[in-house]
Amino acid sequence: MDNRQLILLKADINAQLQLIKAIDGKLAVRAEGVNPDDVIRLESIAYQIHNLYSATEDLLKIVAACFENHIADTRQWHTALLNRMTVPIPGIRPAFISSETAALLNSLRGFRQFFPHAYGTNIDYEQLKINLDRARKIYRNLEKDIQIFFEQWAESQAKYSLL
Question: Model-level pTM greater than 0.70?
Answer without folding.
Answer: yes
